[in-house]
Design a protein that fits this description.
The protein is built from two helices and seven strands; from the N terminus they run E-E-E-E-H-E-E-E-H. With 114 residues, the chain is an alpha+beta fold. The strands form three sheets. Strands 2-6-5 form a three-stranded antiparallel sheet, with no helix packed on it. The two termini are 15 Å apart.
């Protein structure tokens, strides 16, 4: 999320927060096909009403391949810190950006678990 001055990203929650899912049309992760073992609990359904077509839903928990970085949060001032070295976590800027993110997620009809 960005407002033009700040950039903000937020992990879904601690690892024990579940259920969390990944939604997609093609079973791929980053630069490779998703392993068959990861697909064993996949479901096909209309989980994302704004898309209008069925999508795959796969549990997104550490045992199924989500990387540690997904749990990180960060807020940075783009003008003063282009290399994103000074995290503004815990500041008024982060609070404002978090509220913007929640509003955007509600407007985008993100899945309830998010």
């Amino acid at each position: 999320m960005t407002d033009g001055q700040h950039v903000y990203y937020r992990g879904p929650a601690p690892k024990h927060n579940s259920p969390l899912y990944q939604y997609f049309l093609m079973p791929t992760e980053y630069h490779h096909r998703m392993d068959a073992d990861r697909m064993k609990d996949a479901e096909l359904g209309r989980f994302l009403p704004y898309i209008g077509i069925p999508v795959l839903r796969v549990p997104g928990i550490p045992e199924f391949g989500i990387h540690e970085e997904i749990y990180e949060n960060g807020c940075f001032n783009l003008a003063d810190d282009g290399q994103q070295l000074d995290d503004l976590g815990g500041t008024a800027a982060e609070t404002r950006m978090r509220k913007m993110l929640v509003t955007a997620m509600k407007e985008a009809e993100c899945p309830d678990e998010q």
